[in-house]
Amino acid sequence: MANYLLMLHGTPWSNQTVLSACQFAQAALESGHTISAIFLYQDAVLNAINTLDIPSDELNGQSHLLQLKNEHDIKLMLCVTAAEKRGLTDKNIHSEFTISGLAEFAELTTQADKVIQFK
């Protein structure tokens, strides 16, 4: 079975990208594979905002990411540089997300069988 590392670029709302990544992760897990982490990069860091309030008739990427975290203990990591550029700090991100750097992402790539990007 493979160990996957997912890199996410999509915003948390009105975008299929986050939902597609979560659906892929769920299918991989059900097939016996592992997901070492989901790394949020560029605008995807907005998925970690702790005051995110998305209307019920729009896609809510954050809720899908949190469900994966809670059900399968998948690390939800966001790029510190991308977060800072968008005004995010450890004070305004959801507690289930971890701020990290590209160095940590690079380390995870050495342990993964496959790295998949969702843009």
Automatic annotation (TrEMBL):
The protein's name in its UniProt record: Sulfurtransferase TusD
Species the sequence originates in: Psychrosphaera saromensis
Pfam families tied to this protein: DsrE
Subcellular location: Cytoplasm
Primary localization class, coarse: cytoplasm
A biological-process GO annotation: tRNA wobble position uridine thiolation
GO molecular function: sulfur carrier activity; sulfurtransferase activity
Phylogenetic placement of the source organism: Bacteria, Pseudomonadati, Pseudomonadota, Gammaproteobacteria, Alteromonadales
GO CC terms: sulfurtransferase complex
PANTHER family cross-referenced by the UniProt entry: PROTEIN YCHN (PTHR34874), SULFURTRANSFERASE TUSD (PTHR34874:SF3)
Record keyword Amino-acid biosynthesis present: no
